[in-house]
């Protein structure tokens, strides 16, 4: 049964955002899946109009709030571990102009999060050759182009640092872009945020410099 508060679009958005944030933080759902599942939890099977759904920025704010309240003892260490791994692989992939994106960059990554990298080079196939020469066993899939221009090949593998023998491996996904795709790719949005960062910026996060605001 739908409570009266659900007839207020703003209240519905807030409740869906809170529920979606919990699903992302606890279960590792992606934003789209979490939003759909949260909407069903709040309003049942009734089809929800777009104006009743929160945007990703609102959900991200709720994730940060949830992590601060319920995962404050564990999430910062998990995030740091993932950023250390990201920096390691960005250094390895330096010839291919790597960028970090996603929750590991934005600061909302948790125990279910993977490291998402994008590389920009004249011949993306060279990245696959590098992986083979490094004896990295990877799977090949496709990721939607960040600019909506179809899909790009993505190399995915599990990685456990040599000094973490007992730790769970981390999923790493390397999306292969052409050099020309980088034009305009790091442009800030209206709130001054960018969706990807180079090695120097990620290293600054680890070094304790002022943390910039990024989006997912």
Total E-strand runs: 6
| Total count of helical runs of at least 4 residues | 7
H and E string: HHHHEHEHEEEEH
Q: How far is the N terminus from the C terminus?
A: 33 Å
Helical percent range? 25-40%
**Which sequence of strands runs across the widest sheet?**
3-4-5-2-1-6
Percent range for β-strand residues: 15-25%
Low-pLDDT stretches are: 1-6, 209-216
Reported CATH architecture of the largest domain: 2-Layer Sandwich
Overall form: globular
Query: How many structural units, i.e. domains?
Result: 2
User: Mind summarizing the main beta sheet?
Assistant: 6 strands, mixed
Per the CATH scheme, the topology name of the largest domain is: Beta Polymerase, domain 2
Structural class: alpha+beta
What's the rounded overall pLDDT mean? 88
Radius of gyration: 19 Å
Explain what you see.
With 216 residues, the protein is an alpha+beta fold. It folds into two domains: 4-70, no CATH class; 75-206, Beta Polymerase, domain 2. It contains seven helices and six strands. Strands 3-4-5-2-1-6 form a six-stranded mixed β-sheet. β3 (139-144) and β4 form a beta hairpin. The longest helix has 19 residues, at 9-27. The two termini are 33 Å apart.
Task: Spell out the key features of this protein.
6-stranded mixed beta sheet, 216 residues, alpha+beta, 2 domains, Beta Polymerase, domain 2, disordered C terminus, disordered N terminus, globular
What's the layout of helices and strands?
Layout: H1 9-27, H2 31-43, H3 56-70, H4 75-92, E1 98-101, H5 103-106, E2 115-121, H6 125-133, E3 139-144, E4 151-159, E5 170-178, E6 196-197, H7 199-206
Parallel strand pairs: 2-5
Antiparallel strand pairs: 1-2, 1-6, 3-4, 4-5
Helix pairs in contact: 1-2, 1-3, 4-7
């Amino acid at each position: 049964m739908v409570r009266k508060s659900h007839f207020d679009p703003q209240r519905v958005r807030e409740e869906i955002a809170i529920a979606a944030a919990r699903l992302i933080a606890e279960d590792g759902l992606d934003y789209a899946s979490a939003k759909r599942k949260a909407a069903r939890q709040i309003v049942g099977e009734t089809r929800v109009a777009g104006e009743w759904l929160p945007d990703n920025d609102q959900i991200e704010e709720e994730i940060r709030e949830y992590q601060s309240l319920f995962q404050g003892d564990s999430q910062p260490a998990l995030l740091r571990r993932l950023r250390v791994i990201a920096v390691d692989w960005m250094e390895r992939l330096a010839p291919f102009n790597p960028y970090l994106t996603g929750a590991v960059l934005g600061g909302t990554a948790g125990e279910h999060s993977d490291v998402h990298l994008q590389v920009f080079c004249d011949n993306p196939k060279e990245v696959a050759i590098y992986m083979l020469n490094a004896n990295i066993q990877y799977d090949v899939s496709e990721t939607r182009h960040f600019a909506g221009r179809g899909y790009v090949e993505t190399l995915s593998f599990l990685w456990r640092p040599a000094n973490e023998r007992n730790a769970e491996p981390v999923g790493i996904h390397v999306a292969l872009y052409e050099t020309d795709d980088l034009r305009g790719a790091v442009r800030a949005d209206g709130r001054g945020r960018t969706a990807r960062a180079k090695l120097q910026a990620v290293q600054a996060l680890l070094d304790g410099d002022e943390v910039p605001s990024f989006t997912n």
